[in-house]
Fold this sequence. Notes:
This protein is α+β, with helices and mostly antiparallel strands. The chain has 10 helices and 35 strands.
Amino acid sequence: xxxxxxxxxxxxxxxxxxxxxxxxxxxxxxxxxxxxxxxxxxxxxxxxxxxxxxxxxxxxxxxxxxxxxxxxxxxxxxxxxxxxxxxxxxxxxxxxxxxxxxxxxxxxxxxxxxxxxxxxxxxxxxxxxxxxxxxxxxxxxxxxxxxxxxxxxxxxxxxxxxxxxxxxxxxxxxxxxxxxxxxxxxxxxxxxxxxxxxxxxxxxxxxxxxxxxxxxxxxxxxxxxxxxxxxxxxxxxxxxxxxxxxxxxxxxxxxxxxxxxxxxxxxxxxxxxxxxxxxxxxxxxxxxxxxxxxxxxxxxxxxxxxxxxxxxxxxxxxxxxxxxxxxxxxxxxxxxxxxxxxxxxxxxxxxxxxxxxxxxxxxxxxxxxxxxxxxxxxxxxxxxxxxxxxxxxxxxxxxxxxxxxxxxxxxxxxxxxxxxxxxxxxxxxxxxxxxxxxxxxxxxxxxxxxxxxxxxxxxxxxxxxxxxxxxxxxxxxxxxxxxxxxxxxxxxxxxxxxxxxxxxxxxxxxxxxxxxxxxxxxxxxxxxxxxxxxxxxxxxxxxxxxxxxxxxxxxxxxxxxxxxxxxxxxxxxxxxxxxxxxxxxxxxxxxxxxxxxxxxxxxxxxxxxxxxxxxxxxxx
Length: 620
C-alpha cells in the first residue's frame, strides 16, 4: 500500500491530462539469425473519468503470418491494493479495422485488451512480446516519438543488435539521452528520458509527430543502400502484362494529358483505399495485376498499380515515398513512421505514404495514391513541402513543392437584396480549386443526402432564424474537375433596425470549406499554425438596398500586407447597390509562432464586422 501511494499522482498536477504514464519501456532485439523481437511494458495511472475511456483499451498491431503476440501480464491495481485481471473475453485478436473485406491483408491483426475495474487512481500494467515466426533479412529501422498527449514519468527505448550490425541514429526536435553498451555479442543502445510534459493541443497546430522529440534509427549504411533495397522490394511488382495494357486502352483519352488523368482518377477514386500506413503490411507490394483484379490496395499496392498503368501508357512516372502525417500521436503508442532524416540516417521509417509524379510537357503533376478528394494532379497541402525519396535504380531525396496561393482559390460571387423590413435574400456562385475543392468534397460528397441537407440548412441558419436554402454542386464526384456550386438563400430579419436606422452587416459565406477557417482566435501561440496550404479567398457581394435608402455609414477600405499574406477590403456605393469586395491571401503553409501576430492581424481584419457594416436610413 505504501508503494502504491508513492506511485500515485495528484490529478491537480495535470489538470489537462486523462492519465499519467509512469513508465513506457520498449526493447527491440535483433537476434543473430535476423529475427526481430519486441518487448513492451506500460504502467499508466487513470486520473479521471475521461482517462477511463481514453486509456482503458489498448490495441497493438501485428502480422499473424510472421509474428506471435504473447501477453506476459495485464492487470489493474486499485488504490486499496486490490488487483483485477482482464477476463478471457476482454482479450481478443481482431482484424485491423482498415482491412475490412480486403482479404489479402487479413494477416494484419490487432491484439485488443480491455482493462477492468477502472476508476480514477487505478493503475494499469501491461507487458507483451511480439515474437517472430521466421527470420527477417531486412535491415532494422524505425522512428520513435518521446512526447505525446499525456504526461510521462519515464520513457525508455532500447535497441539490441549483433555487434557486426550497428545502428545509426539521429535526433529530431531536441536530443534524447543515450547510452551505448558493448557486450561480447551485442551492441545495446538505450534512449531514456524522464518527466516528459504533455502537448497542450492548439487549433490548427501541425501533427504532434512533427513537434515531438524523436529518434530516427537505421542499419542502412548509405542512401544508395536504402535506395537499392527499396527498389528490390518494389520493382518486381511492376507489370506491363496484357491485363494492364487492356486497362490502359480502356482509359485512353484524346490527349496525353487526358489519358494520364483518366488513369490517375481510376486508381485514386475507383480502386478502394485500404488505409494502412505504408509499411503496416510489410515491405513487398503485391503485383500490379493482382491489385487491379482486387480493386483495392494499401499505399504500396495502389502505387505499384498507378506506376504500372502510367508506364504502360508511355509516361515516365516517378514513385516518391513521402512523409504525410495523418493524425495526432497518442502517447503510449510505440513506433511511429513520420518526418524526415537529418541527413545522416537513411531510414524508410521516415515515410508514410506514396505520391506518383509525372512531368508532361514541362509541367509536374502529382498523384497521392490514397487521395480521392483532390482534383487529379493537385498536390494536397499535407504533402506540400515534405521530404520524399524517389524509388528507382538511383534513388534520391527530394522535397515536394509548396504550391503558390494561386493553386488554391475560393471564389464566391454573391448577389442579393435587402427589403424595407430588413429581410435578406441572395444567390451565390462558388468556384473552388485546390485545397478548397478538397474541403468541399470532404464536407459534402462523403455525407449522405440527408446529412448534407442538415449541414447546409444549419450553415445558412447561422445568418438568421428561419433561413432557407436551395443548392446544387458540381464536381464533387468527378475529381477531374474543380468544384462549382450555386446556393440560393433567404435570411428573414437579417438587418437590425432602430427607428429609421438600419444596420446591415455584409455576411461572409457561412460554409467552412470556402475559406481558411479561423486559425487566429487566441492572442498568442505555443506551436506553429498549419494553414493547410497557401491559398486565396476572393469574395464579392453586390446587394440592392431598399428604394430611397440613404447610406449614412460605409467603413473605410482595408489594405494590409505582411510576411504571411495580405488582406484587401472595399465597400462602395453603386447607385442603389452596395458592392463589397474582399481578397485574402495566405502565402505560407506553416506559420511560425513568431509570425503569428501577422497572421492574426490579417484574420482579425478579414472577420471584423466593423469593416463590413453598412448603416442606412429607410428613406421614409
